[in-house]
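User: Please predict the structure of the protein below. I'd like the answer in structure-token form so I can feed it into my own downstream comparison script.

Assistant: Understood. Taking the following sequence of 228 residues as input:
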Amino acid sequence: MFIYRPHPAEISYQAEKLEKKLDNFRVIGDKSIKQWIVISDKVYTGNSSTFVEAFLARKMCYMIFPIEPSEDYELEMIKGADKIKTFEAFEKSIFEVGGKFPIKEELIDTVYSIDWEKPSYVKFADMAEEVLSNPYYTLTKESLNNYRVKQGVGTRIIHQVSKLDCLYNIYLKLLNNEKIQWKLLQPMRDAHRKIEDTARNLAFEQTNDIEVQSIVNRIAEQLDNKDL
């Protein structure tokens, strides 16, 4: 079974036609790419950093490049990779057992700072503890005052208002009422729209509660493992 996971911004009519024609080909855009990688036997990708997630999941990954990309478009890490450029090479890879990963492990380790000995969540926890305990990261009153001076008057007013729930709720009502065309509110409306548009465009990468709980459970199992 082939699963074609399109890019969130991609509309592939060719893939949809192929899905209708073949029983063993599916176009599925739901879920994150890492979830499909984990359940797959092999991963095929192109000019994408998907190979890193395949590498971390210990899945064999092949780089498909039937057409050579321009130098300024191709990812830097892929330029020296082993690539599949013909149908014959693609067909051979399907039946191949084992195989050599197309990109050197040393290069991936260097660029992504992979540490197989210490999990990333432990590093993040250590970093948070360092920030909380080290006075170096504490902002002085002078630093805060200098930051406030650089803010506009309108921004400072909004920050003060947002500290009080009752006033902040009034501010939100004013912000959402398009009939009120105050000059102070317009930049705030534009900023809110930009944030909403960004969140909407990135919705495909949002992690659901089930996935978060699954990750938490796996971490808990590792912490309970006395052999670690």
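That's the full token string. The beta strands are 2-4, 25-27, 42-45, 60-64, 83-84.
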